[in-house]
Amino acid sequence: MPKVVSRSAVSSSTDAQPTASSAASLRVYYCICGEFILVIDKSLATLPRRKTDNAIIVRSRDNNADKARIFKLNAVAEEPILLERPGGHEKQYRFHCPRCSLKIGYQTSPPPVKNAPFLYILSGSLTLMQGQLPPDAFDGENDA
């Protein structure tokens, strides 16, 4: 039987320019405890914020003007709560981390995720690097 010999070389460079496919890559976010929570097609820092509670707005459904974000949420649904807001009440269906139970976000329709037009990610609840606190983790901590 003939002997098969093959050679291959793998090369990479830190000086390489980003490609179109790398710019469109997915972002992975973790809970403060290190648990994987969210994969999304855009940086959370670039998404709009909700005026009422500064939560990050993730569009879950398409509408005439905007396309829905592509994302996967790894979180546990909780019982809904009713909040008093100026001008009325808001029912929130909250999600928490499966490991440490930290509140991650909410939507205004019953689960599953993407059942509502928007998913709201609570400010300071997710980080890009495991083991590192997000810069806004303690925002509002000392508010009266």
Question: Which helices and strands occur, and which strands form pairs?
Answer:
Layout: H1 20-23, E1 27-31, E2 36-40, E3 56-59, E4 71-73, E5 76-77, E6 81-85, E7 88-96, E8 103-107, E9 118-121, E10 126-127
Antiparallel strand pairs: 1-2, 1-10, 2-4, 3-9, 5-7, 6-7, 7-8, 8-9
Number of strands: 10
Radius of gyration using CA atoms only: 20 Å
Helices and strands, in order, run as HEEEEEEEEEE
Largest sheet geometry: 6 strands, antiparallel
Distance linking N and C termini: 81 Å
Poorly predicted tracts of residues: none
* Individual helix count: 1
Shape: elongated
Which whole number gives the mean pLDDT? Answer: 86
What proportion of the residues is helical, as a percent range?
A: under 10%
InterPro entries: STEEP-like, STEEP1_dom
GO cellular component, one term: cytoplasm
Family: Belongs to the STEEP1 family.
Pfam families: STEEP1
Can you put this structure into words, describing what you see?
With 144 residues, the chain is mainly β. Helices cover 3% and strands 31% of the residues. It has one helix at residues 20-23, and strands at residues 27-31, 36-40, 56-59, 71-73, 76-77, 81-85, 88-96, 103-107, 118-121, 126-127. The strands form 2 sheets. Strands 3, 5, 6, 7, 8 and 9 form a 6-stranded antiparallel sheet that branches. The chain has a 4-stranded antiparallel sheet with strand order 4-2-1-10, with no helix packed on it. A hairpin with a 4-residue loop joins strand 1 (27-31) and strand 2. It is elongated and about 80 Å long. The model has no long low-confidence stretch (mean pLDDT 86). One of its GO terms (cellular component) is cytoplasm. This is STEEP1 domain-containing protein. It comes from Gymnopilus junonius (Spectacular rustgill mushroom). Residues 21-134 form the STEEP1 domain. Belongs to the STEEP1 family.
